[in-house]
Amino acid sequence: PKAKSEAIRLAASMQLADGDITKTLSFAKNANKLATGEWLNIMYNSMLSSPTTHLVNTLSNAMQTVYRPLAAYAGGDAKQKKQAIAASYGFMNNLWESAQIAGKVFQDADVKVQGSKDFVQAGEAKIAMEQLSLAAEATTDLDYKAGVGYANMVHDIATFPLFSWPSKLLTTSDEFFKSMISRMEFQSRTMGDAIDAAGGSKDGIEAAYKELLEKTYRQNFTESGEILNDDLLKVAKEGTFQT
Fold first, then answer.
1. What's the pLDDT tens digit per position in 78-134?
2. What is the pTM of this model?
3. Burial of 108 (0-12, 13-18, 19+ CB in 10 A)
4. Quick one: which of 210, 199, 215, 183 has its CA closest to 92?
5. CA angle at residue 175 from 69 to 229, to 5 degrees?
């Protein structure tokens, strides 16, 4: 039983250290590290609880979303103007897809957030907490059980909806605008490719554009809406101040 207990504790510790045995910490340090991270989340959420913070974040993201196509249209050549117009092509569809993605992030803490600000996602902390709790059940070490109990208490406070909504709302807003920006940029670039493929034919541009949109969409986005193209993700992160 003692060997089994130690094996479970070691396995949990290695998982929390991303499988690197040279970085494996003691269980006391693991519990303390997790609790400290959750206390920092509580602090961040208290700092972000002002409505003004969310208003500024939303307005700045919205400004950045329309800035790129407007700048391209105002100062670009004929090709760049067409690309800027294409960035607004299917605006309502982009809006719907982005709203769906943002909704998933808001409702489910375990949804993967790409390029988010440096908040510890609740899903990651939840998994770590489950590993520590499993190890606590298998051990007779009362100090370890107490440490995991303390970490669990802090985790419950940090993830309580009344306290966790500020960072969740901020992340949700960022994901919405990141989705919008990436799709608008994708449509703009696709129009540029369509213009080159059509060779200047006005009728051929529209046909080439629609064909390229259908052909390359899944190369850039997953069925669930995640961004596959690292370049598009970089543009989206710049637009939401996440670089």
1. 888 888 888 877 777 888 888 988 888 887 655 555 555 444 455 566 667 777 777
2. 0.68
3. exposed
4. 183
5. 65
